[in-house]
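Dear support,

We are seeing what looks like truncated structure output for some complexes. This example has two components. We would appreciate it if you could run it in full and send us the complete token output so we can diff it against ours.
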Amino acid sequence: MNFYTDNESLSFYLHHPDMEQVVAVREKNYAEAGQHPEAPASAEEAVNQYDMVMNLVGEIAGDVIAPNAEEVDHEGPKLENGRVQYAPGTRRNLDALIQSGLYGISLERRYNGLNFPRAAVVMAAEIIARADVGFATIWGLTDCADTIQEFGSDELKEKYLPRIWQGATCSMDLTEPDAGSDLQSVRLKATFDEAAGCWRLNGVKRFITNGDADLHLVLARSEEGTNDGRGLSYFVFDKADGGMTVRRIENKMGIKGSPTCELQFTNAPCQLVGERRLGLIKYVMSLMNGARLGVAAQSIGLCEAACREAEAYAASREQFGHAIKQFVAVQDLLDRMRARTDGVRSLMYETARYVDLAASSKPASRIADILTPLVKLNASEYANQCAYDCIQVHGGSGFMKEYACERLYRDARILSIYEGTSQLQVVAAMKGIASGAYLKQIEAYDARVSEALAAAPDAERQKCVEVLRQATALYKRFYELAAGDGTTTERFEHCTRSLTEVLSYIVMGYLLLLDSQRDARFLNSCRYFVREAVGQASRFVAEQENC
Amino acid sequence: MAKQVPDTHNVGADAMNPDGTVNRAALPVVFNPEDLKALEMALRVKDQMPDAKVTVVTMGPPRAAEIVKDARNRGADDGVVLSDMRFAGADTLATSYAISQLVKQLGKVDLIFGGRQAIDGDTAQVGPQVAEKLDIPQVTYAEELLAVTPREITIRRRLEHGTECVKAQLPALVTVTSAAADCRFPNAHRMLRLAKDEVRMVNADSIDADMDRLGLKGSPTKVKKIENVVLAHKESVVLEPTEAALNALSATLIQEHIL
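Here is the complete output from our reference environment:
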């Protein structure tokens, strides 16, 4: 089974018209063409390369990772003498991906990477997550290398980046017992050892995903006497240098194959990444945005898995002499699951393309910043809803351990928590709501839709765009009511989640409408968002006006 | 040696034409599964002897170049497709003749690996016939490569009721069963690096062949009729839930060589 070729939506987004620009930016106008045997000379060639590699990722996900998922969930990793032993299935997954050259695919070619843009990297993440979300966390953490590539010195890059391709695993060590969402409170100490000429880490990190990785990016307090984010720096720690032991592996409800660890650092030698004091305020924020897109990819992989499990069960399970998918109530559940998956997938690839374009464009960077919390919020919440509905479609059988849906349900739960809870995503979206940046983006989508409809009039799409405009007008009214006269922010803050929800429906509605012009099968899912946008916006306006 | 075959695991409703012949256009094609295992065994020889060169040979329509590309992506050094309408209709005798002639053109060949059989023919004859035509030892039903030196190869092979380890002097031919190790996945870097490299296509004129021994002309096998035999349950036996009835059933199954 191939998890890429059996899902037409993936190839659809790989061949999105904006990919031409994405590739040109990533390939620096094809500067390496002819210089490096793997470098493409055109957008078409690059997209063909992505297609070939996704095919390979899909094969490994379908033939190796997915069949191992159940066993890995049961066995989980073990702690032996302060070191983590992966479940055997996890090891097999890693070996297959390493042997296939699928580690560090975003890294530059000089570090043996494939120089893939984010839009392709998140696709690989989605494919792998569909097979096993827990394993996708381990693979996805190689994104840590991007931080070294972006902010590290040449010496750090030469030392560490080639190891990623060889299979060095990574972790991002941020959280501590008293520093979760509030990373400014990090206390793990970094002191410079003059005699040895290196930094040393002392303290404890907690809830560290893949905590016994080969390479760690560690957020630590380097500035004595500080107690906020400005005293934190970022370090790279190599496990081979010693000084770190795993104190425990957490017993989690989901993603059980991924070892979540408590780490003790004792005089652990490490090297500074970039400049002192910029650890949290610059580097972690950059890494975090990438990580949030990564969690969105995991979420969409899980949505896809849940849709397929539910669709297959509903087609085979018969009641009252008919397959249960023939009953409207069941079909409605399936349609909603599919619509949410389609909508948030479109939003994720849109966001990823803007992240790629951000390398050469400030406006693109601003759009990437506002879309990232939107996609993380919606993808992770939809993953939970899809997993919930998947069990619902299975009925009593879904409550039993025999079906994959129970694992999906457990695995989904963390997605709206880690790398910034849903509540923090809403906070992150506030700025774009208040500044009108989202509205500006919606206007840009509206202009694109109008242009397309002028070229090829279509009554059904015309109706959709009119309702989306109506929803946008209601959103503006809702915002005015929530903002009030500006003397207090309390009401606005209470409404932020609802405002973000309405915005999300409108944005995903527009994106699917644009997608439907290239592939009509997205029109069904588009209608779901159009209905939700106008329905929810009306409700919230009525609430504000009447309550 | 490898063959591109119809993917019998993914057969759609339009796989057969109304006249009972195979609708090849509607069938997806794959690398014959046991040939992939043979490729893995060849690559393991190369793992142990990095100077060794693995060349994939196949016979088929131009599209068969796909499996050569796939094999290169997995680690093979090179590949050749024997493709010519004059090979069409070849049975195992004509196929093994053509392939053996091609092998002779490749220069010094120490080891030939191939799958035991192809899933579209199930004859298991081509490998042994190539060995006969090249007059080299053959090891059939290979499950595992145990050792290889520049002079000999040691293989564990499957027998009906067990396994045996055999040594063969090189050059030799080995046919590999489905119990052997799975083939490694393609490597992304190789895939991108080799994407534009053409696959060498060879026609009947290039292998110094006797034209009368090729294709339909060189094939004594004549297919008279193809029948689709569907086995169905016609009778059922109801057993009493007693030990005596179960013993009688066991005895019957043993007598019929089912158990």
